[in-house]
Amino acid sequence: MPVNSVQPKLIIHGGAGSSLKSKGGADRVRQSLYAVIETVYSLLVSGADAHTAVVLGCQLLEDDSCFNAGTGSVLQSDGQIRMSASLMDGKQQRFSGVINVSRTKNPIDLAQFLQTSHDRVLSDYGALELLRELQIPSYDPLTELRLQEWIQERRGNFSREMANVVAEREVLTEAGRGTIGVVVRDMHGRLAVGTSTGGKGFERIGRVSDSAMPAGNYAASNAAVSCTGIGEDIIDECLAARIVIRVTDGLSLQSAFEKSFREADQRNRDFGAIGIAETGAIAWGKTSQALLAAYHDGQAIGDTLEMDSGTQVAGIA
């Protein structure tokens, strides 16, 4: 590595929700997550900045139809896909995002463009106009599996509160909360974070996710956090920003996670989060049964797929 550089660190997630049904299910998710880790980490060790690495990681996860973001996004109650995504640069402490955008392959690309815009968060109509302005080709992210999932739920008058977190029936049990997220520390010690989602699925038309808010996606110079789970619970806790602010106020990253998740557990929240500190510490936590996350600590790849059910916080110093 170059003189005065630090070891890059990386953690990503593909959602949180119910336990994996089988080893085969875990293997499918692990294969997808590890492929992204390997590609993005290779970019980081070649000298890429955190911002660039986060965007690539989000693009790769959005393109994997296994996850509920980009291709493979769930449908709202009216049968339409509305996606949200945001990006935050920790060095500049700058947030940008899009809310309920449709007909695009990678919502994170719009969030990236908006990093340098005077207007940094756009809703559906504004995001559509931006797509036209940038001449990004129209794209349908709908998959057959998500369509059939919606049709089946429509027959039951949308009795379920949300769709499966992973778009494979054999992977997860009924309940799930789907989002993808990427957190990076680059060779210069800079942090960035991106989060993208298709929403809960079957929700009221126009419902807004936490993924395009600082509650679910936040970074400063000393920590960055991406959340996944029940968006309303994440918003109520202002989880990502709360953890980062606690690190800013002097707590270690893991202590900030532990305090925040202990409080959330008392309020019966249902979510997960991943984060990296400026020091290189990596942490993750969940109140849900499973957190679909993987990381590269500078030495090796690991994951959170075998964590026991219930509230847990863990990390690597």
Give a brief rundown of this model.
By secondary structure, the chain is of the alpha+beta class. The protein is built from eight helices and 14 strands. The protein has a single domain, classed as 4-Layer Sandwich (Glutamine Phosphoribosylpyrophosphate, subunit 1, domain 1).
Structural description of this entry:
- The protein is an alpha+beta fold.
- The protein has a single domain (9-316), classed as Glutamine Phosphoribosylpyrophosphate, subunit 1, domain 1, CATH 3.60.20.30.
- The protein has 8 helices and 14 strands.
- The strands form 2 sheets. Strands 1, 2, 3, 4, 5, 6, 7, 12 and 13 form a 9-stranded mixed β-sheet that branches.
- Helix 1 (23-45) packs antiparallel against helix 2, helix 2 runs antiparallel to helix 3 (107-114) and helix 7 (239-248) crosses helix 8.
